[in-house]
Write a structure and sequence with these properties.
heterodimer; A: alpha+beta; Alpha-Beta Plaits; 10 helices; elongated; B: 2 domains; 6-stranded mixed sheet; 10 strands; nucleotide-binding (chain B); Cell_div_FtsE (chain B); cell membrane (chain B); transmembrane transporter activity (chain B); ATP hydrolysis activity (chain B)
């Protein structure tokens, strides 16, 4: 009978609900039972997440700027002034055949003149003289799927018949794109490094608290506790440590971002430098920090308890 | 029913602790394991709940063969055997009540049953009034009574005690022995490694003497047989 019972436990590995509750309670109790060790662990999480938070906010903004710049990259194909209607249609068809392009817009010389006059404002009126005899070219505006392809596509289009000139702000774009590409890699690398350091710091701190409890873990096993029964409260404890440790960084990052956003936005007046609005970004940032905090807490704690479970 | 056939234990460093031991213990027996220090008493009883793993022969408890048992099934074995240690092995940060309840929490017992059974065993060892204290606030004898309560709260068929009175003064030891006798009277097998000549010679039971890794004597209502 006793063996049957033991077997039925073995088969039914699904934890009972009250046991889940028990693990959560135990994990929570450990937070205050460990006193200063808890403070130390939370401190380690807080410090690293502060850095991560500031860094992620900067990175997201840099990324946003890079995206803006990249989206602005367009190839302007100036059609020969002498080109006939069917020549223009031929060019259009050939451009459409290029697989890398994402959009193609035709802008007639009349439209070009209109927009030119608009950008000139009041001074634009003097251009009205040209409405009868428009000196501008018809223009195709081409965008590529990946901004990196801009150069090749532009070179290709330049070889077409009846194409007068192809412009895309050559060197500037090339340098800018290279810069944004490397900036992204470096940013991702640095964030990964920070998270890794945090995991290391925290698992070390938690290891100290668990080493102090290694004797208890041994006793629990002798009384018949399975590894997972012992591990779950540590899992919960690690998660709580991580979440508690992320609260201050979230508050500080949000506060600082709110301040920077509201004070700096008006002072920066470049067209492509645009700070991401507080509203969606702040909450995403808070979620990211919370998730990273919980993850490193759980990871550090579960990794440290592992070696004491072999009794 | 515990059966050992040709059981040997050799440690990785080459020291042989047990040598082809044969032993059979019926359900409900009370057995002392005696012998000089280092003779293999602790190894012998430790094998019964798989703290020690035999390197040869076979051990079965109530039909379960321990040497074939998988690592992750060991916790389940330990739930069916109560173990009492010389150093009590109580969880220092839990109260007396929580220490005993832990053995029931691991088998996912209902809170209602946990409460009822913990209070029952606390009554048996006469410690109801200390339920909310932590182990450090208790005397050695009281701590050992808590550990006995934890060992029997599951109603195991077998209780194994490794020198349970080793750290206690004589008077407290007798108190502990009365509890073991009470447990045994309810049909539980009790196996106790001990150094106490007084206890063995006064409370007459089956005596198994171990020397140099072999059983040299096995008598019912036996004597301690060594100078104390």
């Amino acid at each position: 009978m006793v063996e049957l019972y033991a077997m039925s436990i073995e088969v039914n590995t699904v934890m009972k609900l009250r046991t889940v509750g028990r693990h959560i309670r135990e994990g929570g109790k450990n937070i205050y039972r460990n006193g200063w060790m808890t403070v130390a662990s939370i401190g380690a999480v807080t410090t690293t997440l502060l850095l991560v938070g500031i860094f992620v906010a900067l990175m997201l903004n840099l990324n946003q700027m890079a995206n803006n710049v990249e989206e602005d990259v367009e190839i302007r194909v100036l059609v020969d002034l002498t080109a006939q209607e069917e020549d223009i249609q031929k060019i259009e068809a050939k451009i459409r055949d290029i697989t890398e392009i994402s959009s193609l817009q035709f802008s007639s010389k009349e439209k070009e003149l209109e927009s030119l006059m608009e950008t000139m404002g009041e001074d634009g009126d003097q251009w009205e003289l040209f409405e009868q005899d428009n000196p501008l070219n018809d223009v195709f505006v081409v965008k590529t799927e990946d901004p990196i392809d801009t150069f090749d596509v532009a070179d290709e289009i330049a070889t077409f018949d009846n194409v007068d000139e192809v412009t895309y702000g050559q060197q500037v774009v090339e340098k800018l794109l290279k810069f944004t590409k490397y900036a992204r890699y470096i940013g991702i690398g640095l964030i990964a490094g920070l998270v890794f350091t945090a995991i290391f710091l925290i698992s070390n701190t938690i290891k100290l608290t668990i080493t102090a409890r290694s004797k208890e873990i041994g006793i629990m096993k002798l009384v018949g506790a399975t590894n997972s029964f012992i591990r779950w409260p540590f899992f919960i404890e690690g998660m709580l440590l991580g979440i508690l440790g992320s609260l201050i960084p979230i508050g500080v990052t949000l506060g600082a971002y709110y301040y920077v956003y509201n004070n700096l936005r008006e002072k920066i007046n470049f067209s492509f430098v645009e700070i991401i609005p507080f509203d969606p970004l702040a909450w995403q940032l808070a979620l990211i920090l919370l998730a990273i905090g919980a993850f490193i807490g759980v990871w550090g704690s579960v990794m440290s308890v592992r070696k004491f479970l072999k009794v | 029913m515990i059966e050992m056939k040709d059981v040997s234990k050799t440690y990785p460093n080459g020291v042989s602790a047990l040598n082809e031991v044969n032993l059979s213990i019926e359900q409900g027996e009370f057995v002392y394991v005696v012998g000089p220090s280092g003779a293999g008493k602790s190894t012998l009883v430790g094998m019964m709940y798989r703290e020690e793993k035999a390197t040869g022969g076979s051990i079965s408890i109530n039909g379960v063969y321990l040497n074939k048992m998988k690592e992750r099934k060991i916790p389940h074995l330990r739930r069916d055997i109560g173990v009492v240690y010389q150093d009590f092995k109580l969880l220092p940060r839990l109260t007396v009540y929580e220490n005993i309840a832990f053995a029931l929490e691991v088998i996912e017992e209902t809170p209602k049953n946990i409460r009822r059974r913990v209070m029952e065993v606390l009554d048996l060892v006469n410690l109801k009034h200390k339920a909310r204290h932590i182990p450090d606030e208790l005397s050695g004898g009281e701590q050992q009574r808590v550990s006995i309560a934890r060992a029997i709260v599951n109603h195991p068929k077998t209780v194994i005690a490794d020198e349970p009175t080793g750290n206690l003064d004589p008077e407290t030891s007798w108190e502990i022995m009365r509890i073991f006798e009470e447990i045994n009277a309810r049909g539980t097998t009790v196996i106790m490694a001990t150094h106490s000549k007084d206890i063995v010679n006064t409370m007459k039971k089956r005596v198994i003497a171990v020397e140099n890794g072999r059983i040299v004597r096995d008598e019912h209502r036996g004597e301690y047989g060594y100078e104390a």
